[in-house]
Design brief:
Elements lengths: L8 E3 L4 H4 L1 E6 L8 E4 H12 L7
Antiparallel strand pairs: 1-2, 2-3
Length: 57
């Protein structure tokens, strides 16, 4: 990451019910790759972030 740029993540929650996945991509590169994460795994990740489990040193 260059100085002055910030990561931007786009999450498509509208596919959770129909596909059971949460697609995630870099919103600055809309034609770039998409990571499809199982809904349960994404939920666990979000709960871990909320609990402070991914704080940097």
């Amino acid at each position: 990451m260059e100085c002055g740029q910030s990561p931007e993540v786009e999450v498509a929650t509208n596919l959770v019910a129909s596909h059971g996945t949460v697609p995630v991509r870099d919103s600055k590169v809309s034609s770039g790759p998409v990571l499809s994460v199982p809904a349960a795994a994404f939920s666990s990740f979000v709960e871990g972030v909320k609990a402070g489990g991914f704080r940097s040193a």
